[in-house]
Design goal:
Helix content is 41%, strand content 17%. It has 305 residues and is α/β, with parallel strands linked by helices. A hairpin with a 4-residue loop joins strand 1 (9-15) and strand 2 (20-28).
Length: 305
Amino acid sequence: MMRIDRPKIEGSVAVDNGRRRIGFAEYGSAHGRAVVWLHGTPGARRQIPLEARAFAAEHGIRLIGLDRPGVGSSTAHRYDSVADFPSDLTVVLDALGIERFAVVGVSGGGPYALATSHAHPGRVAVAGIVGGVAPTTGPEAIAGGAMRLGSLAAPIVQVAGVPLGKILSSALGVARPIAPPAISLYGRLSPRADRELLARPEFRAMFLDDLLHGGSRRMEAPFADIVIFARDWGFRVADITTPTRWWHGDRDHIIPYAHGEHMVSLLSDSKLFRLSGESHLSTFGMSTAILAELLSVWDHADSAP
């Protein structure tokens, strides 16, 4: 497996009055503008493309990956709704000395990025969503995609998610020898664009590094995601005023492109980037373009009278 450098800083911060901890990993410049990168489902704090890490170092960005509760170094916890997440995030950012920031939400990280924009419009300079999950219930819901099955499974996962997560964590703890062929098998069963991305050594290495360092310790988070994505998110997407940029592959087999169109139609200040021929995982290959666009939007907002 290709060698990957460790994050510049990696640790955890106490939240919820010290009752829980949230893990983080930091790349790039310690003094640059902060970009919080929220991983997909499943995933953990190191699920950030190597290209994005190099871009952050070159352009003076403080790039921070965060473990959601129940994965990596974060204490297992199930929010009542997606809207509960921003309070944990702001405690972490306050501890790291970060006031204003951009946020990126990939796939299952999308709802959490949107919740953060909704809760803290003054602190979030710009939000970027990459193939993000859309609501499945309430007035802003849209049908189809992976969450169609997730909504059906949510009642079972609500009961069995914790023990399933512990079993999966134990399995991943001894899975290092079989992880590379498992990634290869997933690639062979995926659309062409995802298959091509997983054939690239740097992306295979990133996914394996994240899986083996995050998931092997704790893997309850994906099941918690399924449960709360199937509920009302606790806020309305249409109420978000933060500038938002949305990237979505038009061949996405997990979260349909129509979901991206639907979400952008709800957002008041947004732009949709249609990624022709791209699927779900292959959008990771756009990470440097995503960061560049977010910085441009941030610059424009700061220069506005």
